[in-house]
Each structure stands twice: as C-alpha cells, then as structure tokens.
Amino acid sequence: MWKQIFTKTYPDVKKEAVWRLWTDINNWPRWHDDLVSCVLQGPFAVGNHFMLQPKGMKPIKIDITEVNELSSFTDGTSFFGAKMYNTHALEEAAEGLKITNTLVVTGPLRWVWIKLVAQGVAASFPTETEALIQQARGIHD
Q1: pTM summary value
Q2: Mind listing the pLDDT tens digit for each residue in 34-54?
Q3: Residues of the domain holding 73
Q4: Number of domains observed in the structure of the chain
Q5: Do residues 73 and 66 touch, judged by C-beta distance below 8 A?
Q6: In this structure, what CATH number is given to the domain that contains residue 70?
C-alpha cells in the first residue's frame, strides 16, 4: 500500500460551503484547473460514479465508495492491477476548518499507477485545495 496525506487548516471558511463544492461534482472544473469535465451519474451517493476527464486524457470512471454527510467522502478508481482511493475529510478545529486528503493505492501493480497517476494527483492537492477554499469563501447563504 502507498499513502500520501495532505492536510491544512483554514480560518474563516464554513464546512457547509466546502461540502457543497465537493458534492457539486459537475462543477469541479471551476476549481480544478487540470480538468476538462466532470459528470456525476445520479445523486452524490455510495454506489454511484462520475466520469472525470483530466486535460489531455480520456475520461476516467470514479466510484463513490463512502459518504459521511458534511464530514467525509471517499472515491475510488480501478486500474489494471491496482485501485486508488481518495478520502476527502472535513474537521472543525479551534483554528478553523481542517481539510485532509488521503490518497491510497493498493494492488500488485500499484507501483505503475503511483508513477503514472497517483504522484501527480497527490502533488495537486495543495493548489486544488487553495482554489477550493477561495470558492468556498465566496459562498454566502
């Protein structure tokens, strides 16, 4: 198993705003500058999936494997000989909202997919999270 964790705490941002952006998968390209499109098939719920198309690549099917309302969700991608899971978590702390992304790759061919995909995904977490937070701070109820 290979694991990478990115975590950062942000003051002055509401978990409801971040959750709304996370669950609005069709609009991820607004704050993911490396995406062409992202289309959720059905509601944001375990068992459903979305098609994510990074720039310069074909769409990839990503399954929603776990949802804990306003707290966390996990999505999973199946590759030949490996699986990649990304857990997105929110935690309210005294200093602000703690956001954590945990990327895990398992399987006998994980080393291939770590090099081809996972390292790039993990490297994008800081930039994507900053863009997410800027979007979330602009949401007012």
Answers
A1: 0.93
A2: 899 999 999 999 999 999 999
A3: 2-137
A4: 1
A5: yes
A6: 3.30.530.20
